Amino acid sequence: SLMEHTHSGPFHQALREFAFEQGALRDLGSLDCRATPAFETLDGRAQENQAGTDRVAQDVERLAELQNLLFANAEAAGLRRSVLLIVQGMDTSGKGGVTKHVVGAMNPQGVHQVGFKKPTPEELQHDFLWRIRHHTPKHGEIAVFDRSHYEDVLIHRVEGLTAPSRLQRRYGAIRQFEQDLVGNGTMVLKVMLHISREEQYQRLSQRLDDPTKHWKFTPADVDAREQWDAYMEAHRIAIEETDTDEAPWFVIPADRKWYGRLAVQQLLIETLASLDMTYPAATCDIAEQRRRLDASR
């Protein structure tokens, strides 16, 4: 079955071992955010950075090819499969970089990328999953969520926007929602880009020092930072409540930007490779079409 494939692959395994012990989430604060699971590092930071960046560049075509296979098989062979990649993380954790360098390298025709912002008045008229359902992937598609329905249990818990009993029900609604997606052929990958408090300080500081990045800066980033421990706790609870065999969580150490990108790229590659796809056969007589084409010169 597909489930046996899900945790195959060196990055799947190494990242699960990095953050979980016998199925239980380790303390997020104790994890080394500079770690590089499944990636053999060389001596010296510059080399390592280069090797990691090179590996991302080297595997761009492999990912694009797999994504193309998924799309082709859904279009021509009726393959009922899709992928949903959910990317969560504190501000500056590298969500945008993953979108640009990993997702941006795939054919936009088969990719549906959504950045979820604060809900609009219309969205607030509906239950919290309403706006999310609009964007789930069609067969053959890879959907990528930069933030997601998890904001409704992260920000909401920290800021006290939703009553605790209602939050508890939301975790159940999320589990059911994701299970339904899996039942419909969607492979769900959930990623938390995990940076250290110190690294976030450095990144926010660089934004304040760089006039070309001032537009990216919002006081809310510092507000959230002031509640760091509460956010880590909210992430812990969300992960523990919604980590399932069908829709697993991956906590990715993201203090090294290149590693965050590499890890997400490799998780996608391993997930798609587990489908063992080949290009669909022709639906018409190729020799006959060749004759027709040549006759039309």
Describe what you observe in this structure.
By secondary structure, this protein is an alpha/beta fold. It has a single domain, classed as P-loop containing nucleotide triphosphate hydrolases (Rossmann fold), CATH 3.40.50.300. Helix content is 52%, strand content 12%. The chain contains 13 helices and seven strands. The protein has helices at residues 2-6, 10-19, 45-77, 95-101, 121-124, 130-133, 151-159, 164-183, 197-209, 219-226, 228-242, 257-273, 286-295, and strands at residues 20-21, 24-25, 82-89, 111-115, 142-146, 186-194, 249-253. The strands form two sheets. Strands 4-5-3-6-7 form a five-stranded parallel sheet, with helices on both faces. Strand 1 and strand 2 (24-25) form a beta hairpin. Helix 7 packs across helix 11. The protein is globular, with a radius of gyration of 21 Å. The protein starts with a helix and ends with a helix. The model is unreliable at 1-5 (pLDDT under 50).
